[in-house]
Amino acid sequence: MNKKLASIVAIIFVIVLGGIVACFLLWGDESVKETVKETVGIGPDHKIELKSGDKTYTLDLKKVGYDGKDAATIDKNAVEKWIWKEVKKEVEEPPKNAKMKRIGDPIQPEKAGRVMDENKVRDWLKDLTPLIDKTTEIPMKTKEPQVTTKDLKNVNKKKISGYTTYFDSNNTNRNTNIRLAAKAMDRIVVNPGETFSFNKETGPHNAARGYKPATVIVKGEFTQGVGGGICQVSSTLYNSVDRAGLKITRLQHHSKSVTYVPVNRDATVSDGGPDFAFKNNYDKPIAIRVSMDDNSLTVKIYSVPELKPNKRSVPDAPKKSQIKQEKVKDPTKPNAELPKDDKVPDDGSKPNATNPDDKGETPSTENPEEPNQPDQPDPPNGGDEKKESDVNSV
């Protein structure tokens, strides 16, 4: 009996062992693989595999609902999300614009990019069947940059706007400050999509950089401070930029009208406080040119010959005979004629103030054709403590 049982066990062992050996020998056969998987309940692997160069990107179709038979069971939204959010980010090389900080500086050449051919990819998404369990090359195409070396060489060929303001030629310190700020922003080039910040490009406005004491506004009162006069430069730039049809992104006005520009056409600035900024919303670069003589300051905006700007109508500045320079009898004491407590309401309304440095300022709404206002004005600066940002030039 024992011999008979032992024989049966031996026969079963040989059969099992033979089956295992056969499976190992035949495992390279894909049909055998799939049969075994289905028998034990694993099911075949199905995927979409995309290729670009030497890199491949694989999506497991089980994770997006595929039943292994009908492509209609695939969640197309999930496939689209994978392609547009993951694969696209990996395979694309965006073009790089040519760059030049200032007119006359060395030019960093442009570089063409490689991007997905989105039209062809969308055709794929109409029927995913041809992509299942195959490696498919991602359709790519060349994308040229917006700004070329040629553009930068021609960026000063076409004047698209200009604005002139006037000042007292006898105020030496203030004129020095105007000259320094004007020189700092002269010849700067702004590429499409880039933002110019007055404070960043011309500051800091301190004695170490040559700025002199001149009339400034401290919390709505006239006094003396280093850098007085730079707001005339930012205001002249603002009006020229507005005439050119560029996008204003940061702007604040003084609480009391200044004499060198029309009402609500000024742009107050100060280190650590309000700033004037604009964005180049055109598809070509623009350049800032600044000139100055004994009693006037002119800012012009230039670009390439083929640019077609959307110009705006902006009122001219008062002539030099109309300019009145505010005087401070005692440089150590503010002029009490200006309002001292013209604050911004907590509800965000705009009765008389949005300037943290000059309580009582409001964003400009004056433009004869179309207002060009920043999306979000500078927020107010609370508290009564005097800070560096509580000072504005005039």
From TrEMBL:
Entry keyword tRNA-binding: no
Q: From which domain of life does this come?
A: Bacteria
Annotated Pfam families? VanW
Which UniProt keywords are given for this protein, alphabetically ordered?
Membrane, Transmembrane, Transmembrane helix
Outline the segment boundaries, as ranges, of region: Disordered: 308-394
Segments passing through the bilayer: 7-27
The record, for InterPro entries, names:
Glycopeptide_resist_protein (IPR052913), Vancomycin_resist_VanW (IPR007391)
Basic and acidic residues composition bias: residue spans: 313-349, 383-394
Q: Does the keyword Glycoprotein apply?
A: no
PANTHER family linked: EXPORTED PROTEIN (PTHR35788:SF1), EXPORTED PROTEIN-RELATED (PTHR35788)
Query: What is the official name of this protein in its record?
Result: Vancomycin resistance protein YoaR, contains peptidoglycan-binding and VanW domains
